[in-house]
Amino acid sequence: NEIKIFSPATVANVACGFDVLGFCLDSIGDYMVIRKTTEKGIKITKIEGFDLPYETEKNVAGVSAQALYNDLRPECGFEIEIHKKIKPGSGIGSSAASASGSVYGINELLGRPYDKTQLTYFAMQGEAIASQCEHADNLAPGIFGGFTLVKSTKPLNILSLPTPSDLFATLIHPQIEVKTVDSRAVLPKEVPLENAITQWANVGSLIHAFHTSNYELIRESLIDVIIEPHRKKLIPHFDDVKANTLRAGALGCAISGSGPSIFALCKGLETAKQVEKAMHNVYSKSGIAFETYVSKIN
Ligand code: HSE
Predict the structure, then answer these.
(1) CB-based contacts of 23: which residues, under 8 Å, 6+ apart?
(2) Which of 1, 3, 88, 122 could make an S-S bridge to 67, C-beta 3.0–4.6 Å?
(3) Alpha carbon of 148 to ligand 1 centroid (Å)
(4) Where is the GHMP kinase N-terminal domain (predicted)?
């Protein structure tokens, strides 16, 4: 009647796939405890780590849990404890981890009445109150694992992509907050056709590269000509981090979700660690506090 879950951090966009691609990290995430109760309804009983609202209708985990609950109308209720490790506004899917964790846990306790796409749909209701727009590119990898592509949100259609076995992610999280709403506000409404062509060629070839474990093609495809030029101004030392991680052997380096975190994809754990050092070197001189992580994609 109780379940403890790990709700992973995720990287959305993956350079060229704005709002559609994402992947799941296995070394960073929140913990949640979900308990079945005889009293009906959804209650948040504990939040540790960050100051977030306890009211179900204001809490991302509460809203997504309530969406599932209203659909199923079970004869019981649920209590949710959130042990938050992912800082809100970090660009590694903090709200998505809360939104997907609660529905994933409740579904397990109920004997899995819903499939992963349906869980993502409920989680989107929670994510919407945090980012004020409906996107599932952080939710889908958290629920499905590995790399995912959100083919469409209406109707919701998620594709699970293969992960080449030697692929690692290195991340730096500068301790500044960039709100998704703000980093969406800097984006243009229209895109030159030439850039659109480059971008969709990169998305297509990146997916082909995942299917064929073609690391060189991953390197050539991890390029974002549409979003990064506008958003990188919000992230101190972005260009330096990118140049230094590429020099240290990263296949590619780009903004994680809406920032400020920056991720690099690397072939092999050793390269991933070298890339982590390169990130350290840039930020240790900056006076901005930061954390770095190396993670498998799972
Ligand atoms: N795809 C979204 C964005 C993810 O980049 O705005 C942020 O949560």
Answers:
(1) 10, 11, 14, 141, 146, 147, 148, 163, 169, 297
(2) 122
(3) 14
(4) 65-146
Q: Name the maximum alpha-carbon separation found in the chain.
A: 59
| Amino acid identity, position 41 | G
Identity of the residue numbered 167? L
Which atom, in ligand 1's list, is nearest to the CA of 184? 6
pTM: 0.96
Q: Which of 29, 30, 74, 84 is nearest to 54 (CA)?
A: 84
| Sheet of strand 290-296: strand arrangement | 252-255, 262-267, 167-174, 290-296
Q: How far apart are CA 7 and CA 142, in angstroms?
A: 7
Tokens 């840039």 belong to which residue?
A: 282
Cα(35) to centroid of ligand 1, in Å? 31
Q: What distance, in Å, lies between the first and last C-alpha atoms of the chain?
A: 27
Which is it for the CA torsion 274, 278, 280, 284, positive or negative?
positive
Positive or negative, the Cα torsion across 73, 75, 81, 85? Answer: negative
| ipTM confidence | 0.98
> Model confidence over 3-60: pLDDT tens digits?
999 999 999 999 999 999 999 999 899 999 999 999 999 999 999 999 999 999 999 9
Q: Tokens for 170? A: 């290195």
